[in-house]
Amino acid sequence: MTDPATTDDSADAAEAPLTIVIGADTFLPHVNGAARFAERLAAGLVKRGHDVHVMAPSATHAEHGVFTEEIEGQPMTLHRLPSWRWLPHDWLTFVLPWMSKHHARRVLNKVKPDVVHIQSHIVIGRGLAREARKRGIPIVATNHVMAENILDFTTLPPVLDRVVVKLAWDDAKRTFDMTRAVTTPTRRAADFLESTIDIRGVIPISCGIDANDYTADLTPREANRLVFVGRLTTEKQIDVVLRAMALLDPTLGVTFDIVGNGDQRRSLEQLAEQLGLADRVTFHGHTSDADLRALLTRASAFVIASIAELQSIATMEAMASGLPIVAADAVALPHLVHDGENGYLFEPGNVEDLASKLNRVLRQTPAERIAMQQASLDGVKMHDIGRTLDTFEALYRDEPLPG
Fold it and tell me: What residues does the Glycosyltransferase subfamily 4-like N-terminal domain cover (predicted)?
């Protein structure tokens, strides 16, 4: 007969708080989807009582060390590694690759974690995985990387870009082979990874979002306002949105709020002037969370032309704000946008098709609009951050995944 006390002790041990090291090549003050996911994951785990240590680049080379930082309202330990500015990029800092194992040894020797979760196989995650394996520490890896996200910043000719990408994916395979599990935000992203390198069983786990942080306004709009949130880089194809906007009927009075910064900002500002849109396009740069949420709440529709989204937290934020979405039919965006239900999909790069879909969403009847808004609100429920945290906790503990 099983001793009840023994059963209770085993259950308590199974649910005991974990010590977790998260390795992230991009984290605050970086602003991008991968960084946002790592921040929300770390904060959510801390809120659940776990001891979380994050290895991330320092903001500047001089600002390295171990700090207690508050992320998403939760205090956690940040191991800020000595980093250097990547000059082709407007803000990115990176850790010297040949120092990644050294930093990993130092942190693992001090923290002695129960599990390591790498957010990238490139630098910090690469060294961390190899050192964790030597110590028998379980490793979980999440992939946020697509080639289109990095090729603009290699400064190499295209023929060498292809060689570098091939070598990078080969090295990713070696890193992922060391892990207990490999995850990525959506099923389409998992299929992409499995078709790119020879691995199987990639687990799709949504980046997650707390929809309660966003406010939906289901009342009719007094003006036609488009909004985009994200980095202003080539693969986001914001120029396609501007050219499509120029084709819309001027009587619609469409304005466009662009939230975010990036290396393409100046050229996009010039394009808006050339298209005669300068007085109707506002470049907000980085905003506070409160200002971002206000812009989403008042908008008529969210538009995203990107061809390199493995999920798109910004699109989920727009859905949680009750917006119809007009998105490129590329990579993971169709996972979020169901054509004719919570928005419309357009052929990537096709300016005329995008203009047609924007015209359609902006000319909806009140009943059609409310139906799309409600579809966005319903669709984002499956991406609740609580479900994401439950799933990663199960992976960390090597337990069956929740349904």
Answer: 31-211
